[in-house]
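User: Fold both of these, please.

Assistant: Here is the first one.
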Amino acid sequence: MLHLHTLAAVLFTASIPMGSQAVAVPPPDSREARALPDPEHSHHQLTPINKRTAQEVIAQLNLIPNVEKGYFVETFRDTDNVTTTSGGTANRTASTAIYYLLEGSEGFSRWHRVDAVELWHYYAGAPLTLSLSHNDGSPIREVKLGQDIFDGQHPQLHPGSTPPATKWLKLTGLQRELETFPV
């Protein structure tokens, strides 16, 4: 099972300063926009990510082992810093983004927490369950991450269910025989 954590949610953004005039930009070439093979390079074959092995993805994204199980790589670190309010007066970076992959043989991640709010995005593969706990005797809340929105799965943890920094969490794959990636 293959789980990617916090992949880019926005593929393209453009900001226009206040008071500026918007400039019309022609759309990209349709082959480029839909990622269709270029006829001039037809010897290159596109392989869907769900047809790749976990080890292929680990190698392609340069992922390294994570202490919570699985593999990760940081892909973004904000240059702005903030002062945390929930753990003292420590300064930390305002935001980061990572890829996180949990291989099928791993089964689940360890219970852990981070000192920031997390936003999870699911992209491909078998669905997974994100278990959330306050570690105070209250029931564990489970949210399914996946692409089947008609079966109660969420492609993104929406703001109302984004885990606060004080919650404990773990990931569990729902279909161990498949390789999976999300978020």
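And the second sequence with its predicted structure:
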Amino acid sequence: MLPRMPSDCWSAGVILYVMLSGSHPFDNEPRPSSGDWIGRSKEPRNIDGSGHGSLCMQTDIRVKEKIIYGEVEFFQDPWITLPDARSLVESLLIRDPSQRATVVAALDGEWISSEIEDLEALYRLKIAPV
């Protein structure tokens, strides 16, 4: 990855958010129980014939709005215990590409640099055995 690839850095922020929290940064609202989804699956189809009911369409619109406006929510877990990771993810998900963290900035961030010796040791052990 080149140091000035802002879309790749944004995508890395999304992936890191998912890996650490188990949810998507822009689609993390509570869902109805599975029983509610079954009832909604019988909703009428859209004019274009797609199977998306009104709930799915509303969710899609909300996700797109969150992406466009850069609305990322950091709920308590795991972010309260990982402030340096949160800072890194926030810097990667900045909407303006000119302000977004680069690969170099991300690697120099506190969360990664504080663990660099352990990360390099694991790399040598697993990837590049001596």
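The helical segments are 6-21, 34-40, 54-69, 76-79, 83-92, 103-108, 110-113, 116-126.
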